[in-house]
Amino acid sequence: MKKYIAKFFRYNPQIRGGGYETEREIEAKTIASARKRAREIENNCLYGSMTLIDIKLADEQEVAE
Length: 65
Known about the structure:
- The protein is about 30% helix and about 45% strand.
- It has about 60 residues and is an alpha+beta fold.
């Protein structure tokens, strides 16, 4: 299993900018299955709504920082 980092925008009208960015770590075999899991997280958001911005391997993000 590979680790992926999914970046979401979480909408909240009570916040001045309309929301904030948040990240979730997802374990999956392929990028396609990681995207599918990210969409499940997005659709099952309990409060407000979330939109997937980006998804990448966790190792790639560490190198970029």
